[in-house]
Amino acid sequence: MEFRETALSGMYLILPRVFEDPRGFFMETYHQAKFAAAGIPADFVQDNHSRSGRGTLRGLHYQIQHAQGKLVRCVRGEIYDVGVDLRRDSPTFGQSVGEILSEENKRQLYVPPGFAHGFCVVSEIAEVTYKCTDLYHPEYERSLLWNDPQLGLEWPIKDPTLSPKDEAGILLADAECYESSSDL
Ligand SMILES: Cc1cn([C@H]2C[C@H](O)[C@@H](COP(=O)(O)OP(=O)(O)O[C@H]3O[C@@H](C)C(=O)[C@@H](O)[C@H]3O)O2)c(=O)[nH]c1=O
């Protein structure tokens, strides 16, 4: 397992060690001690799984209380996965990092608490699983507008299929963010 910290502190791209043999393959996807040694002391309490069709965009989601860190993996197909830093005291506030995660490359992204998260589907179908460090609290959930010009995100698709909640996403300029990283 190789951990590469991205340009946003606390957000990591994780490359697996894949053991192939005549049966198929084996890989570790989460190992508490290895994650902790890499600086990700994440305690996961909820696992999610979604399936989406080509052109779907989910996000950019975050919870203003009960902020969630997410360990994201695409187990079928291919997605472009994005984290946006919403920590006001961070030197990279408002900046984002995106990575291709796919069934084939088996990469994972760890998006820490204090970030908004979203992805779009670039294959016919994509199934995404992710572990979360806090539970779902819909009353605290917010959606940041996926195409807010201030974010300058370069999504690899046009005219995405969105949920009504994400159609009505808010601009970063109007968004409730995280005032202090030490509260996360
Ligand atoms: C996120 C979530 C949704 N739900 C329900 C609520 C709703 O009826 C249905 C679909 O919810 P949503 O439209 O919010 O699903 P979705 O747009 O896939 O939301 C997810 O998007 C990605 C990008 C994330 O980062 C996740 O944290 C989560 O916000 O599932 C739960 O029961 N538990 C959950 O944890």
From TrEMBL:
SUPFAM superfamilies: RmlC-like cupins
EC number, as in UniProt: 5.1.3.13
Pathway involvement of the protein, from the record: Carbohydrate biosynthesis; dTDP-L-rhamnose biosynthesis
InterPro entries, sorted: RmlC-like (IPR000888), RmlC-like_jellyroll (IPR014710), RmlC_Cupin_sf (IPR011051)
GO molecular function, one term: dTDP-4-dehydrorhamnose 3,5-epimerase activity
Cellular component annotations (GO), alphabetically ordered: cytosol
Pfam entry (one): dTDP_sugar_isom
Enzyme class: isomerase
Entry keywords, A to Z: Isomerase
Catalytic activity: dTDP-4-dehydro-6-deoxy-alpha-D-glucose = dTDP-4-dehydro-beta-L-rhamnose
Site annotation Participates in a stacking interaction with the thymidine ring of dTDP-4-oxo-6-deoxyglucose: residues: Y136
Domain of life: Bacteria
GO annotation (BP), single: dTDP-rhamnose biosynthetic process
List of catalytic residues: H61 (proton acceptor), Y130 (proton donor)
PANTHER family (UniProt xref): DTDP-6-DEOXY-D-GLUCOSE-3,5 EPIMERASE (PTHR21047), THYMIDINE DIPHOSPHO-4-KETO-RHAMNOSE 3,5-EPIMERASE (PTHR21047:SF2)
Similarity comment text for this entry: Belongs to the dTDP-4-dehydrorhamnose 3,5-epimerase family.
Subunit structure: Homodimer.
Role of this protein: Catalyzes the epimerization of the C3' and C5'positions of dTDP-6-deoxy-D-xylo-4-hexulose, forming dTDP-6-deoxy-L-lyxo-4-hexulose.
The name this protein goes by in its record: dTDP-4-dehydrorhamnose 3,5-epimerase
